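A common beginner's mistake is to predict each chain separately and then try to dock the pieces by hand. The better habit, illustrated here, is to supply every component at once so that their relative placement is modeled jointly.
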Amino acid sequence: MFRMKAAVYVEPGRIELTEKPMPAIGPNDALLRITTTTICGTDVHIMKGEYPVKPGLTIGHEPVGIIEELGSNVHGYREGQRVIAGAICPGFTSHACQDGHPAQDGGCHGHGYKPMGGWRFGNTIDGVQAEYALVPDAQANLAPIPDGLTDEQVLMCPDIMSTGFVGAESANIRIGDTVAIFAQGPIGLCATAGARLRGASCIIVVDGIDQRLSISRNMGADITLNFHEVDVISEILRLTGGRGVDAAIEALGTQSTFESALRVLKPGGTLSSLGVYSSDLTIPLNAFCSGLGDHRIVTSLCPGGKERMRRLLDVVSAGRIDTASLVTHRYALDDIVEAYELFAHQRDGVLKVAITP
Amino acid sequence: MFRMKAAVYVEPGRIELTEKPMPAIGPNDALLRITTTTICGTDVHIMKGEYPVKPGLTIGHEPVGIIEELGSNVHGYREGQRVIAGAICPGFTSHACQDGHPAQDGGCHGHGYKPMGGWRFGNTIDGVQAEYALVPDAQANLAPIPDGLTDEQVLMCPDIMSTGFVGAESANIRIGDTVAIFAQGPIGLCATAGARLRGASCIIVVDGIDQRLSISRNMGADITLNFHEVDVISEILRLTGGRGVDAAIEALGTQSTFESALRVLKPGGTLSSLGVYSSDLTIPLNAFCSGLGDHRIVTSLCPGGKERMRRLLDVVSAGRIDTASLVTHRYALDDIVEAYELFAHQRDGVLKVAITP
Amino acid sequence: MFRMKAAVYVEPGRIELTEKPMPAIGPNDALLRITTTTICGTDVHIMKGEYPVKPGLTIGHEPVGIIEELGSNVHGYREGQRVIAGAICPGFTSHACQDGHPAQDGGCHGHGYKPMGGWRFGNTIDGVQAEYALVPDAQANLAPIPDGLTDEQVLMCPDIMSTGFVGAESANIRIGDTVAIFAQGPIGLCATAGARLRGASCIIVVDGIDQRLSISRNMGADITLNFHEVDVISEILRLTGGRGVDAAIEALGTQSTFESALRVLKPGGTLSSLGVYSSDLTIPLNAFCSGLGDHRIVTSLCPGGKERMRRLLDVVSAGRIDTASLVTHRYALDDIVEAYELFAHQRDGVLKVAITP
Amino acid sequence: MFRMKAAVYVEPGRIELTEKPMPAIGPNDALLRITTTTICGTDVHIMKGEYPVKPGLTIGHEPVGIIEELGSNVHGYREGQRVIAGAICPGFTSHACQDGHPAQDGGCHGHGYKPMGGWRFGNTIDGVQAEYALVPDAQANLAPIPDGLTDEQVLMCPDIMSTGFVGAESANIRIGDTVAIFAQGPIGLCATAGARLRGASCIIVVDGIDQRLSISRNMGADITLNFHEVDVISEILRLTGGRGVDAAIEALGTQSTFESALRVLKPGGTLSSLGVYSSDLTIPLNAFCSGLGDHRIVTSLCPGGKERMRRLLDVVSAGRIDTASLVTHRYALDDIVEAYELFAHQRDGVLKVAITP
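With all components supplied together, the output reads:
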């Protein structure tokens, strides 16, 4: 039986490259030969044991690859075709999916919702940091890569770009809005690009690393603030003439960024939250106008499915965004443990690493 | 010079009926002879000194009355006409108003927003618990009462009904939704009616007073839960087959109701908050799915303006709701201190009191 | 091989009851034993040859039945269970479906849309006016009937109620709206109920048959107009004080009703169109304010899928609507040709017929 | 008494520069000294007598100027300040305004709507092709010009840019959409920029003049089609793989462009119409899928008010769009009749003319 290499979760603090049998393809699956993948902040949480998965599970949820084999029920694709699939890959038939919440897919039984239920790769099924991976419900999830795009150009589509963009989409940005974005890691940078794509006329971004703030400008930021250098809240209020921003996007997952986002928000504004929090959040009474400020706090999980991927690939193909530049480091799959080491400690100015089996 | 009676804030714990000069009408004002008004929970906060207003200010923000005199710029109304005005009565010309947030009206200068800036009666200008009151920006705020409606039938329109309904509107209820509403005071009861008006097919309401739960059924509730008798969270999850509700409306302003609303909410659902909170709020990490549950938390202040009032009056006139039944007690203006006493202590099953000068 | 009775299209003007082999079930199908179905206006178009289908096709798209057999990929249901399926039963995995337009499902290949592509029963596959019928993509389309509801109580859910309600939903009705609905056949009557469910405070309905207008009142109409007796346009303008209605729903499919709907619509209002037109439409220049009236014209095809059906069944179960009363006549499947005869000629005050195999 | 020069409508075919008394300022007005204005297609309709206005009326509705005097009720501005006002300048207090339709402002009496009622300059009151002009309801309509912007940079804000952008906004464009825009005059060009600002990834524009198509590319178009050279409908269907566009924007006002927009639209798509039509429109049955294609046809009149103007000025100030380049010709007010002559005949590649008193 053929075997393949895969990065698996072993125990808290340990991810290993191991050998596994090739997965057995079912009628609704597609088997991909992974050509490029990457490591996500969530994978680091998994490695550290902060987000529990089953030991032995292959991790990773950002696949770029080539169709090796198609299940008998999967039509309209061909073997050898270059494709991606979203980090979130629901079946799209469940009640939650038909109700407009595919990322919270409760599965086909009953009429339930399951928090983050649409996230399966490297969570509830084997992921894609491997030589091969199965895409479940492939009919709903495979998106062909347009001609002329490299793997690295589309590598952010499955998760980072989809998440960053939805931050701007959920913020309900209108032409002429002023938007503040807290944290400029890969997702925050894509939120910046997303805010630009939705028509914001003043995009203020906040981070503590000048290198990132410099990339922010390429992604569309108008004003960059280093929180080591200025009091961010008073500076944003000053910049907006005391008015506050129309929308604030949180892209880190801490009390501090969440709270700052609320404190610079105008009454009637939207706080769009993308971060993965690790403790209870506090809403300060005064920033919340005692509940009377017509505020909206919206959280969004990365949208998936082939239509979302098609749209993001079109955005890349049309040259509206350059996310290839977020790839700062490259590793062979054989060296993925080393890549985790670098990425987990955020060494060497790393933004995203490309992993090639 | 003519003088009139008015209930004014004196110091924490004390509201008094006093005499004041009749207000001097400006070109954009209307002078109303108040025929009926009522006391709101907010007024009790003011009385207790929890929400500071200037000593000597007339309080109250729910006017039903007769036009005594019209400012020179106010057209399309006539003296002697029966009207109401919303508790929130902005000018509608400011940036915040034109931007869709009249309740957060920042005034005509600059381009600012002011939290709750549209609320003026009994907050930043003299209120309506008096024999006479000025309606500012009357052209934008006076709504004639349709023939055949009594004062008590329309008494909830300026605040309670507008607030309760917006709780359902902001919850984005769709036909067939399951909705949970926490607290069934006057606003919660109107939120129940609002959920019914928007097409919810299962309305679950929660309170600790059986008398209120019995009124809830008249307002449209399908299922009533007394939190003294059942564990509300587990019961709602059981009733929804583990799925959670599509929308939850908070109508009290406490950590407990806010948190319960979030705990029974499905991923992808909306928590619509109406309560006035008096301390920081905590969002529990697990109920919030670590920020990945596609939740929406929306707060809404009572919409005002003559168009909103016209719509609510039409709803009453068409017999879609009976809020006259919420009036449980009646007092003359002369006895308003006694009315505050009863209302502040929620004695004798009081829901709303009608005050008649 | 087992055979069953089915109503098939033969040639223009002729539908016949015939015998066919029992359908062969595929892995994604469910085989239903039909217990009740009905005839739709669309079926009459098919019978007359105005909407071409393949000769020999079983027609009908409104199934109420019992699960006889489940395909191997269909989970979460059991044989013997009472269910319905929507008239529109897409697979929900295509680009069009993921993009929010399941009724225009372009199928799983390419990224196309197909007008009305989600309508398959009695159009592109065998329909349900038969003893047995296959539900395609059953996992996405089967909706269990709540206990205690009769077949006739749920018979309108698959098409008539879903269509009527979407007329109100697409009209973007808000609390306090005035709505005019043109034609009060079964769909128009359900649009009336839908407008009521969305919070309209003044519902004006128009038809030429007094019997229907009398049912309209039971469905929620406030004002009924018989177009034989009044000039409908001037009367509606009079009733609204010259303002026009906030939303107008067209429920017939003629130039006259479409045009009247536009003529009574306020600037800024929505014309929600449900009818199936049979010739080009004319938009009169003045009613359209030369294109400057901020009008919206929205068409909607009946929403389907198990989540929509679940919601409609909940609405029935909660007693929010009684559509069983729309069933005016009952026939055995053996007599379906006679039922078509009656229905096509709208004899004997027929609204809907129940057909029982 | 001081007199000023103004361009007035005399009779069909004739606009003249004449002398008029300076307007008398009321308490809610601002008197502007016009520094730059322009001629709109609508003005040409007026000149030709196709859109009737009162003889002697000053025409023009796109003011850039300096505050000469403020009415006694107008606060927050100062004399000598450079400002613009929208072509649409409602009072914002009427029912229509509070209901979200300021362009259809019915005035303060009753609760009416008036088609295009918010358009007053050069329609129901004296316009701005003059040395001086009154801005009514100035508090709601004056927008200061940010430092560093020239008159020509902001000259398109009052009408052309606001109209073009609303074409994209009403089209409900999402990130990754394909959009077709019919006609690339000044409004169509701004619609192109608007589609880009909303995140469309493929913008296809259609015109018959290559010079305009070349400007289209600068405004954000991806693909330009000259209808003299290709069959536009089949080419757009080919370019979209048969799928049709997500949104089509009509920017001319003819049956041909309207119909083409519908013919290239996917089921479920939106036709956003900006043109001013001069005859009844026909909706072709097949392009409309007999009313079952989930289509939306939306018309929009230029949004006005100071908040809209502030947003557009911010868009210009941030360098998101360069509309100064649309000014192809410049005239003194003294030569306005000559400017009309050129503009009405679309000579010499004219797009917009700047008129300076």
